């Protein structure tokens, strides 16, 4: 059985192939139960969460991701998310690989947003605003840069020093990035706004979105969290990675459904509909598009299979 650490997992998941693999998996007959979500008390600290995410393609591969999310780990200089992915054969049940879960999650999340942007962002998008300066920010910028001809990246974080540091990291890998001082000004400029935060209050206001903007909401993975306001929902064509996940877990969808700003019928399509060509995605240059990603187990399965094939020398096909 292969065991891949963080560095090996990163090397085995190049973004161009990962984006393609996730698109293929969304078109497949993957079986994906809604994930298990367990809140756990941590005495004297913020509650932790355990996520269990199973998925399988009949006769092909079986996988499950186990993630522990400890919000206060930053106080110990440890990652917020720690976990592993267990990949097995769908023919025999034999265990094939354990893939480092944090890196797999970060890369597949970014690749899924880039896949959505291929259908939903303007083809000529040049400026991206990254809201949040955590682990995901660099991944999201790199992946989006493959989906659209982005020339400029603005990074905003509550901690301006962290935003500056994220911009330095982005420049080190060849992205034209700078920290943004004013969130509203940066949002008004951006063709793509990607949010990856643990915010419980809306950060992006709908009034800031320019015609043709694409809003990519990746954080706020619980019903009481939110990164966008009602006006953003009102002004946008709304898409989700999966209806089952987003309508149950993502506060950016759950809260507007609850207060009547959004109905289930207002959700235009899920990513499988876009990937299979059942829905066209963006239909005009002025349309504002809104994509909510809460993470789907099939994305992890696609990534784990790709990582296993790379690391075992089988290539990506």
TrEMBL record:
The keyword NAD applies. Keywords: NAD. It comes from the Bacteria. Transmembrane segments: none annotated. Pfam families: OCD_Mu_crystall. Belongs to the ornithine cyclodeaminase/mu-crystallin family. PANTHER family: KETIMINE REDUCTASE MU-CRYSTALLIN. This is Ornithine cyclodeaminase family protein. It comes from Rhizobium puerariae.
